[in-house]
Amino acid sequence: MARTVITFGTFDILHIGHLRVIDRARALGDRLVVGVSSDELNLSKKGREPVFSQDERLQIIGALRSVDAVFLEESLEAKREYVVTHGAQVLVMGDDWAGHFDELGDVCEVVYLPRTPSISTTAIIEKVAGPTAGT
Ligand code: CTP
To answer: Average pLDDT, whole number, for the chain?
Structure first.
């Protein structure tokens, strides 16, 4: 039976850290499904609207070679439901979440992958805005 891997994220302003986690997640199975978090979820979670809308982020992530399917993640608390609904055998999260999803071990294997150092969407936004932005 095909082994389905699932992972989640905002994936705003696609960068090499995103690509690397997606490629490594895909390598853990035969099929990768990605939950792209909604604009509303981001506003509540990170306190800002993503630069790219949820529709744009869904299209961008869905166009990647390693990604077989995408869906909109509308609740952070619904991971168990998403894992089951999408028939995933493996849940992949960045190691900034290490330990947080161990309770899902009864429905899937839970893997935390190391983040790529020195890059994030937040850092890109700050770099592009420049030192004088907001003054
Ligand atoms: N990720 C990673 N390495 C990075 C940045 C992100 O492996 N340097 C992974 C995260 O662990 C997560 C996925 O990419 O599994 C999506 O993360 P996301 O929060 O969308 O990206 P960030 O760049 O961390 O965004 P922000 O700065 O807004 O928190």
So the answer is: 96
Q: Give the atom of ligand 1 at the shortest distance from the alpha carbon of 21.
A: 7
Q: Is 35 in the pocket of ligand 1 (CB under 6 A)?
A: no
Considering its fold, how many domains does the chain have in total? 1
| Residue 134 is assigned to a structural domain of this protein | no
50-107: pLDDT as tens digits: 999 999 999 999 999 999 999 999 999 999 999 999 999 999 999 999 999 999 999 9
The protein residue whose alpha carbon is closest to atom 13 in ligand 1 is: 9
What is the pTM assigned to this prediction?
Answer: 0.96
CA of 1 to the centre of ligand 1 (A): 30
Any ligand 1 atom below 6 A from CB of 122 = yes
Of 132, 115, 118, 122, the residue nearest 51 (C-alpha): 122
Return the ligand 1 atom nearest residue 120 CA.
23
Domain membership of residue 77 (yes or no) is: yes
49 domain-assigned = yes
